[in-house]
Specification:
The protein is mostly helical. It contains four helices and no strands. It has two domains: 56 residues, Winged helix-like DNA-binding domain superfamily/Winged helix DNA-binding domain (Arc Repressor Mutant, subunit A); 37 residues. The chain starts with 6 loop residues before the first helix and ends with a helix.
């Protein structure tokens, strides 16, 4: 079974390493987590502190915007295909 950690716990663990300068292995042992996991959290935090650990099912703002734009493109392509079919039907009826 996989353990789940909330955002506050992850930030607390990362700050122990980043701000207080504690060793990853020691901090991981104290918090009863894998050092590999803590290394990943630290890397994520350093990459984008403000948007790190967004949570399950949530997206970073730029990822959310990208998904919305992709959906919009799919919708427009579908509308375009429908209009092309309608044009061909009306063109046949004109003859």
């Amino acid at each position: 079974m996989t353990r789940r950690f909330d955002k506050e716990f992850k930030i607390h663990a990362v700050k122990l390493v980043v701000e207080e300068g504690k060793a990853v292995a020691q901090t991981a042992r104290q918090l009863d987590i894998s050092p590999k996991t803590l290394h990943k959290w630290v890397a994520d935090y350093k990459k984008d502190a403000e948007h790190s650990f967004v949570g399950s099912g949530n997206l970073k703002p730029e990822d959310r915007e990208k998904r919305e734009l992709q959906k919009r493109i799919r919708d427009l392509e579908e509308e375009n295909a429908i209009l092309k079919k309608a044009m061909s039907i009306f063109a046949k009826n004109q003859k």
